[in-house]
Amino acid sequence: MKKLFKTGEIFIWFTGFGLAVTLLMISGLLVLVLLKGSDYYYPSKLASVSTVDGKNYLGQMVREEPIPKSNLPDSLRDKDLERYNLKIANRDIYGLDFKWIEQPEIKSILYPKDAAVIERMEFGNFNGYPIKLTKDGQTVIEGDENVEEGISSYLDKISDFRDEINHLSKSEVGKINYKIEQLRLDIKKLQYYNRDDISKVQEQIDQIQDKIDKLNNNYAVISHKVDSIKHIASRYSLLVKTAEGDEKQIDLLNIVRIYYPNRMSFVQKAGFIVNKIVEFLVEDPRESNTEGGVFPAIFGTVMMVILMSLVAVPFGVIAALYLREYAKQGAFVRLVRIAVNNLAGIPSIVFGVFGLGFFIYFVGGTIDKLFYPEILPTPTWGTGGILWASLTLALLTVPVVIVSTEEALASIPRGIREASLALGSTKWQTVRRIVLPAAAPGILTGVILAMARGAGEVAPLMITGVVKLAPNLPLDGNFPFFHLDRKFMHLGFHIFDVGFQSPNVEAALPMVYMTTLLLILIVVLLNISAMVLRNRLRKKYKSSTF
User: Which pLDDT belongs to residue 541?
Assistant: First the structure.
């Protein structure tokens, strides 16, 4: 034992053990999140549960746990009994998604082959038995097997209608609304700057108003087209029977998909999982963000990280270069380094408050007073937006970039610098061609770590521009294409909102876990990218000593 301590081998074993425990904990976390989120993408079987009091429920078994002995009557305390949490869905009928049923209450549990899960645009899933498809009240398809085989073509047709409605409502109508708003701002600007004699610009105002009237006419045409498509799609409906025997008519336009989990093959389940994951990544959210996809949140997170990096990286690297290569080392520089290290430890919410006060109220408010006085008190830049959120996070991550860059620069041997200077290079040439390339691996590591931290921060964003649901992305086809004043969605805030602010938290938990897994994967990919690039740069500059 003494020999192990003297040689230091015991510490190597301790280090290896610590690394193994860390990897095990991380793997366990990922597996736990993946399993908890499986209810979102895995087609669990539908159980038909009959109770001793004559009631019937149809749902997916999402959890089971032993009943505490203290909750059982004396006659049953010697038995190990369980209770089941059943996702009965049908929120518009029952008013809730889940129901606990204890084992003594259960008469029978069956898994009927004709039980279907109907994913809807509103009111969540519906569990039941499809009876027939109707058009204008007339039967088109009837019978369980016929409905399953024949309804897919109708759902595809309705999906095309829904896509066209979304395109017209979001893209075409969005463009018209944007143009109308810009023209109204032009009128306000003319009225503001010519308020003493409005007659001088009345002709211009009338011309702009004519353009607005034409756009409103186009808007009316598109709205009429949308209403026509909705009317055609609403002619189709599906008659469904619940576990209790009640019948309900569901418009086909409100149905996303129908599947029969109790008779799905392995290949069908695999295809279903792939479709759900693709939907999660590329679709917009629905049902108060508890269903659908998270594409706007992914886009907002990535765009915010890019903007943050474009600001934080140059400032951080330049500041570190000055402190390490140009500044005269002394008490003042030491104080600056202490201040930078302290900034790295300040709670992120403090940066959020600073961003609110400085960027939004001061800088944004000043921009509004100077360039947009005609629309005040309605703010343009003096309110939260993706630009101010990105700048706030840039301030948060700059200390990380400065510290990592300084450490990387300090690792370059002094002899390399002196050799370059002795050969006639200037200070800047030495820094640009020798020092910076050799320090690039360390700098890159700090940059990616800063990006990973920025991607996961939520507190500063809550007061500088992030929202629950953003109707428009910060990037679109309307000039000037990048709308940095717009609010945006973020994966971290999406987790907080759905997991803790949703009116139906229990039903939203699978979405929370899936979004959490996605955010973890993004951060992991950033770190893996850092390691790969760093290793490549190390091979390129083998003469450096790191």
Answer: 65
Between helix 173-193 and helix 202-233 the angle, nearest 10°, is 160
Q: Residue ranges of the alpha helices (H) in 411-476?
A: 414-422, 427-430, 436-456
Q: What whole-number distance in Å separates Cα of residue 290 and Cα of residue 433?
A: 52
Runs of H (alpha helix) within 322-435? 331-344, 348-354, 365-371, 386-410, 414-422, 427-430
Q: Which residue has the higher pLDDT, 462 or 10?
A: 462
**Kind plus residue range of the DSSP H or E element containing 460:** none
Count of alpha carbons within 13 angstroms of residue 172, beta-carbon side: 19
Angstrom CA distances, 46 to 82, 176, 243, 354, stand at 19, 46, 11, 52
Q: Are residues 403 and 476 in the same domain?
A: yes
Question: Would you say residue 278 lies in a domain?
Answer: no
377 in the same domain as 504: yes
Pairing state of beta strands 126-135 and 138-142? Answer: antiparallel
Residue 69 has pLDDT above 80, yes or no: no
CATH classification of the domain holding 307: 1.10.3720.10
Residues 6+ positions from 431 with CB-CB distance below 8 Å: 321, 325
Residues 260 and 147 in one domain: yes
Q: Are residues 324 and 404 in the same domain?
A: yes
Q: Which residues pair with 100 in a beta bridge?
A: 85
Average pLDDT over residues 491-514: 87
Q: Residue 490 contacts by C-beta under 8 Å, 6 or more apart in sequence?
A: 297, 300, 301, 304, 458, 461, 466
Residues 123 and 91 sit within 8 Å (Cβ to Cβ): yes
For the ranges 3-17, 259-273, 326-340, 461-475, which has the lowest average pLDDT?
3-17
Range of the structural domain that residue 257 is part of: 135-265
What is the tens place of the pLDDT at every residue in 216-243? 999 999 999 999 999 999 999 999 999 9
Residue among 528, 502, 504, 499 nearest 516 (CA): 499
The reported pLDDT for the residue numbered 544 is 45
- Pairwise CA distance, residues 464 & 352, whole Å: 7
Confidence (pLDDT) at 377: 87
Are 208 and 155 in a shared domain?
A: yes
pTM of the full predicted structure? 0.88
Q: Is residue 319 part of a domain?
A: yes
Task: Give me the mean pLDDT over the 355-368 stretch.
Answer: 94
The residue assigned the tokens 């004043």 is: 485
**Pairwise CA distance, residues 430 & 424, whole Å:** 10
Q: Tell which phi-psi region holds residue 375, choosing left (phi > 0), alpha (psi between -120 and 50) or beta.
A: alpha
Question: Residue 417 and residue 429: Cα distance in Å, rounded?
Answer: 10
Question: What is the count of structural domains for the chain?
Answer: 3
Amino acid letter at 398? V
- Res. 546: pLDDT tops 80: no
